[in-house]
Amino acid sequence: MSVNEQVLNYPLANDAALDPPAEWAELRGQCPVAHVRLPSGDQARLVTRYDDVKQMLADPRFTRQLTAPDAAQLSADGGGVFNNGLTGIIPESGEEHQHWRRLIGRWFTAKRMSALRPQMTQIADDLIDDLVKLGAPGDLKAGLGFPLPVYVICDMLGVPASDRDRFSYWSDTLLNLTRYTKEEIDVAQAEFYQYMSDHVSAKRERPGDDLLSELIAAGGPENGGLSDLQILVTGMGLLVAGHETTANMIGKMVSMLLADRSRWERLLAEPALIRTAVEETLRLDANAGFGLPRYLPVESEVSGTVLPKGTTVICSMAAANRDESAFEDAGEMDLTRSPNPHLAFGSGPHSCLGQSLARTELQVVLEVLLRRLPTLELAVPVEELERMEGLAVGGLRTVPVRW
Questions:
Q1: Which residue in 394, 352, 403 sits closest to 375, CA to CA?
Q2: The domain that contains 275 carries what CATH number?
Q3: How many other CB atoms are there within 10 angstroms of residue 259's CB atom?
Q4: Distance CA 38, CA 25 (A)
Q5: Cα-only R_g, the chain
Q6: Does the residue 191 lie in any domain?
């Protein structure tokens, strides 16, 4: 049976840690708008071509939140980051959404990121000191990939990094597809909500130099600011988004560069390539997770396929990033590739708000690792790296390295 006639189970099964599922190329070529069955059992459509994914993400009519009665449920138990009641509290589209982005975006400007670089570098150096003390082999994900973005986002939000294990668990339950039960998710989200509610109240009493204090100081909606509930949900969202994806990407980036060690050697010889190398690993990430769902409140056409009103579409940015029509030698890693208009951070009005933060963290990690651990290598064959399963974000369970 051809891919055109099949209903594929999604996410597509794939054991390879760093390579894409074989179906991606086939789908882009023959079936750019495929039928898929989600973990919940509901059906949706999957788009894998660069132009189609970009069009879907940039169209303001298509919404992210799957709260419509005829929208597909992603996970069997509902809940999670895409089907969450809290998500409707942040304005979804139009001028209100852009206003929210402007208020938050002031904390993620290139200028602010440059100011944060020395602090990030210090954190990375300290974490590598600890990794070296423990001795090789070590787990680069647990030792560096996970803690660095957590320390940075905690600092930006003024929350204690010592609570990071709790944040990690709460994040995982919010990003659940198949790993947690509805009861576990409900309990964790209630705890997370209470924690952030207490934190926002404490910031109101004793403001600091952090994003949440600034949002409180801006005043409520009547003064062009956000409501208490919006500030609270913004804090929860940034904590999840600000550590989970980048923590995983650090591990995947380093694994991709060490999988063929000539890449690492080239960066040691030409550190000026760090910026383009980061972009290329973001583009080639074959384990990026679920992709972005979109709900169609109106009939639409994609690649000649008419999609009725009420369709849920999954946009696979990772598949689109390997589209030969958009990138020359799309399956190859080119550390010098520029320009590199990949879709790892989405596109259009909902593109990732924290992309400058993620880019800066990835660049800093690479700078510090090349300087401190030039002999770094994977401690296991690439084939033995294991994917994390059951969450909306993709990552590796561990990244065993020696130096």
A1: 403
A2: 1.10.630.10
A3: 17
A4: 20
A5: 21
A6: yes
Chain centroid, CA 46 distance in Å: 19
pLDDT in tens, the chain (403 residues): 556 678 999 999 998 999 999 999 999 999 999 999 999 999 999 999 999 999 999 998 887 767 788 999 887 665 555 555 555 677 666 777 788 888 899 889 989 999 999 999 999 999 999 999 999 999 999 999 999 999 999 999 999 888 888 888 888 888 888 888 889 988 999 999 999 999 999 999 999 999 999 999 998 888 889 999 999 999 998 988 888 889 999 999 999 999 999 999 999 999 999 999 999 999 999 999 999 999 999 999 999 999 999 999 999 999 999 999 999 999 999 999 999 999 999 998 778 889 999 999 999 999 999 999 999 999 999 999 999 988 888 999 999 999 9
Domain presence at residue 1: no
Output b/e per residue, 290-319; b: 16+ Cβ within 10 A.
bbbbbbbeeebebeeeebeeebbbbbbbbb
Any domain includes 108: yes
Count of domains forming the chain:
1
| Tokens found for residue 216 | 């409180």
Integer Cα distance of 23 and 204 in angstroms: 51
Domain that holds residue 188: 7-402
2 located within any domain = no
Give the three-class secondary structure for 340.
coil
Cα 309 to the center of its chain, rounded Å: 28
